[in-house]
Amino acid sequence: MNQIKLKRIGSQIAQELSAICALEANDSLLKEINITGCVVTNDLGLAKVYFTTQLERDKKEVEKELNDETAGYLRNKIAERIEIRHIPKIRFSYDNSVVYGDNIEKIIKEIHDKDGK
After folding, report:
1. How far apart are the C-alpha atoms of 5 and 104, rounded to whole Å?
2. CB-based contact 82:13 (threshold 8 Å)
3. 113: number of Cβ within 10 Å
4. Which pick of 6, 25, 33, 76 has the fewest CB atoms within 10 Å?
5. Sheet with 33-40, edge to edge strand ranges
6. Over 21-83, what HEC string results?
7. Which tens digit of pLDDT belongs to each residue from 49-103?
8. What is the 3-state secondary structure (H, E, C) of 90-101?
9. Distance between CA atoms of 9 and 40, rounded to whole angstroms?
C-alpha cells in the first residue's frame, strides 16, 4: 500500500485514540495516557500505537493492561469513526523517546554548566 496513505491512516488512528482517551473514556488508565504516534503495517493488519504516561506504575504493566484489556474496546471505537475496510489490531508500546530526549537535554545542560565555570 502507498506509504503516504499508511502514514495518513496511522495519523488518523492516533488522533482518534487521543480524543477517545481524553474525552470519552471512563477508564482512569485511558485518561492518564498520551498517544504520541501510530505506525500501521502495509496490510493494515496491525497498528502499533506509541504512548507515554505520568503514572507511577511500571510502564510494562501499563502496556500489558492496555493491550490485554482495552485494545479491543478502542478498536471498536476506531471502527465507528474511521471509514476503512479493515480496522487494524491495536498494539500499545511505551514511547521511550520522551525520556530519552529529557536525558539528552540534561546531559547537554550539564556540559554547558561545566563549560561556564
Report:
1. 33
2. yes
3. 9
4. 76
5. 33-40, 46-53, 89-94
6. HHHHCCCHHHHCEEEEEEEECCCCCEEEEEEEECCCCCHHHHHHHHHHHHHHHHHHHHHHHCC
7. 999 988 888 889 999 999 999 999 999 999 999 998 899 999 999 998 888 888 8
8. EEEEECCHHHHH
9. 7
Q: Where do we find the cell 481524553? A: 22
Distance CA 55, CA 79 (A): 28
Q: What are the residue ranges spanned by the domains of the chain?
A: 3-116
Residue 65, class by beta-carbon neighbours within 10 Å (0-12 exposed, 13-18 middle, 19+ buried)? middle
The dotted CATH code for 3-116 is: 3.30.300.20
